[in-house]
Amino acid sequence: MKSNSLFNKLSSRLDELSNLPKLDDEVSISKLVEEKGFSRREFMTWAGAMTSMLMLPASFTPLVAKAAELADRLPLVWLHMAECTGCSESLLRTATPSIDSLIFDYISLEYHETLMAAAGWQAEQNLENAIEKYKGRYILMVEGGIPHGQSDYFLTIGAHGKTGEQSAKEASANAAAIFAIGTCSSFGGVQAAAPNPTNATALSNVTDRPVINVPGCPPSESNIVGTLLHFILYGTLPALDVYNRPKWAYGLRIHDACERRGRFDAGEFVEEFGDEGAKNGFCLYKVGCKGPYTFNNCSKQKFNQGTSWPVQAGHGCMGCSEPDFWDKMGIVHEPLGDRLYHTTFGGLGADATADKIGVGILTVTAIGIAAHAAISLVKKPKE
Amino acid sequence: MSKRVIVDPITRIEGHLRAEVIVGDDGIVQDAFVSSTLWRGLEVIAKGRDPRNIPLMMQRICGVCTYSHYLVSTVAVEDALGIKVPYNAELVRTLMLAALFMHDHVVHFYHLHGVDWVDIVSALSADEAKASKLAFKYTPNPIGTGENELKKVKEKIAKFAKNPQGLGPFANAYWGHKTFRLSPEQNLIALSHYLKALEVQRTVAQMMAIFGGKNPHPQSLAVGGVTCVMDLLNPARMGEYLVKFQEVAEFVNNAYYADIVMAGEMYKTEPSVMKPMGVKNFLSHKGFMIGRNDYLFETGIIRDGDLSKVFDIDEDLITEEATHAWYKDNEPQHPYDGTNNPQYTGFVDGQSIGPDGKLVASKNINEKEKYSWIKSPRYDGEPMEVGPLACILVAYAKGNKRVESVVNGFLEQTGLPASALFSTLGRTAGRMLQTKLVADNALIAFNNLIENLKVDQETCATYTIDKNKEYKGRGMSDVPRGMLSHWIRIKNGVVENYQTVVPSTWNAGPMDSKGVKGPYEADLVGLKIEDLTQPIEIIRIIHSYDPCIACAVHVMDTKGKVLSEYKVDPLYGGCTI
Question: A304 and B209: CB-CB below 8 Å?
Answer without folding.
Answer: yes
